[in-house]
Write a structure and sequence with these properties.
Layout: H1 2-45, H2 49-54, E1 66-70, E2 75-80, E3 83-91, E4 95-99, H3 140-148, E5 161-168, E6 171-177, E7 186-188, H4 192-206, H5 231-235, H6 252-259, H7 284-295, H8 301-313, E8 322-323, E9 337-340, H9 341-352, E10 356-357, E11 360-361, H10 365-371, E12 387-388, E13 402-406, E14 410-415, E15 420-426, H11 435-444
Antiparallel strand pairs: 1-2, 2-3, 3-4, 5-6, 5-15, 7-9, 8-9, 10-11, 12-13, 13-14, 14-15
């Protein structure tokens, strides 16, 4: 019996050492994620700490963090059992930034120039409340049932939808929000921000200031195999550059988002593993590299900060949107775009109308077609920083649907053949949420 207890004790000690060895390196990422999430949710969307912890931070391991908000200083800190404390500061215009111990919080910083919202014109071209429009070909009972099916019923927490908006022929035909959210709530789009970042290259192309089909303007690549990688290769995620994106472990993506000072450099030094246009590899590092390329198109940092808003975001009335920056002041184009559900829908409408916004061409019509051109080896799943249904991933949805997609099931779906834009924001991953069924129900309510 003594031998048995000795064995059990020895096994317990080994188990504790193993747990510590495997978990301790992750603590920096856990507390980093938590601090950043708390600061963003609280200062951008005015959510309570409890609401953020029960919602955005209700993720395995992340829920181990202990969080504190300092309203006076506008920052949040998080640690795991007092270890690996991380801090995220909020700065109006730039959102929340996860910082390291060397970051000088007293240093002056630039903020983007913003346009005031147009509250005199009805949605979508302004922010005035739209008039009710009834379409004879819409089965509203079926539509409302399909929308309601996306939300949890009382006592159930398995769908976790926060908002769902359906726009048909530029008119809102359905809009529903979960408790605690409404049309003014700013919600993180995660990787939907990638599509916004890519669109800026379409804007520059329209302005005849950039050619995506030429080698990417990166001097560090001029004398090696990477010199043939085009910006188009980067936009289609098939540059051939090395990158690991696996959020269940410490990887290139997590080290970039929760440790890097300048995220635009995270993939810059990665070697080539494959010839360009021969292997699709989803990479948040690529999108932030693209943000860095955008930065170099302007003489000053102020011009770079302004461009995202003056030439795209505020231009189409997405005045609620905030793209957060890293410690170096560069936009984190891969992941950190916040906006109301209605403003996310405006972005979808811009693409539905092939770049035309109330008579003004923001990007060329050809850019929308370029966006939906499938990336080689992606099996029809991915285009120019947009996801595609060309291969029938959603079997009951038209093949011409394409969409922005973000962590925990954020979606802006564009269906040109039906003149539909559908936005879903929530906390349930695409693989665990019946997007096909929800979309099918909405589509079936539109009688041809």
């Amino acid at each position: 019996m003594k031998k048995f207890f000795k064995f059990v004790g020895f096994a317990a000690v080994i188990g504790m050492f193993y747990l510590g060895f495997t978990t301790y390196p992750k603590l920096d990422l856990i507390s980093g994620f938590s601090a950043k999430s708390i600061a963003s949710g609280h200062f951008i969307d005015h959510r309570s700490q409890g609401m953020i912890e029960k919602g955005d931070n209700d993720i395995d391991m992340i829920d181990l963090a202990n969080n504190t908000i300092e309203d006076a200083g506008q920052f949040a800190v998080a640690s795991v059992y007092g270890l690996k404390e991380r801090k995220a500061i909020y700065r109006k215009g730039l959102g929340a930034t996860l910082i390291n111990d060397d970051f000088d919080v007293s240093k002056p910083y630039l903020i983007p120039k913003r346009s005031l919202p147009n509250n005199t014109i009805p949605f979508p071209y302004g922010n005035k409340e739209p008039k009710d429009t009834v379409f004879a070909n819409i089965d509203y009972a079926k539509l409302n049932a399909a929308v309601a099916n996306a939300f949890d019923t009382k006592g159930a927490v398995n769908k976790r939808t926060r908002s769902l908006l359906v726009i048909y022929k530029d008119k809102i035909i359905a809009e529903k929000y979960d408790t605690g959210f409404d049309k003014n709530s700013k919600i993180l789009g995660w990787s939907m921000t990638k599509s916004v970042t890519a669109t800026l290259f379409g804007v520059l192309e329209k302005q005849r200031k950039f050619d995506v089909d030429t080698p990417a303007p990166i001097p560090e690549w001029a004398n090696d195999k990477r010199k043939i990688i085009t910006t188009s290769d980067l936009l289609h995620m098939n540059s051939g550059l090395q990158w690991v994106e696996n959020y269940s472990t410490i990887c290139d993506a997590t080290k970039m988002l929760f440790q890097a000072e300048d995220m635009t450099l995270s993939q810059l030094d990665k070697p080539v593993e494959h010839k360009p246009n021969t292997r699709w590899n989803y990479s948040s590092g690529t999108t932030n590299l693209l943000s860095g390329i955008l930065r170099k198109q302007f003489k000053t940092h102020q011009e770079y900060l302004d461009f995202w808003y003056t030439d795209l975001i505020d231009k189409i009335g997405m005045n609620s949107m905030v793209i957060e920056t890293d410690m170096a002041g560069n936009y984190i184009g891969s992941s950190y775009g916040w906006a109301t559900t209605r403003d996310w829908a405006k972005f979808g409408l811009l693409y539905l109308h092939e770049g035309n916004w109330n008579g003004e061409q923001i990007f060329n019509e050809g850019w929308a077609k370029y966006t939906v051109t499938p990336t080689n080896t992606s099996d029809g799943r991915y285009g120019g920083h947009f996801w595609l249904n060309a291969g029938g991933y959603f079997p009951d949805v038209p093949r011409d649907m394409y969409y922005c997609s973000g962590f925990q099931g954020q979606m802006v779906a564009i269906i040109p053949s039906l003149d539909l834009v559908i936005v879903r924001m929530g906390l349930k991953e695409e693989s665990n949420f019946d997007f096909n069924g929800i979309l099918k129900g909405i589509i079936e309510s539109v009688k041809k």
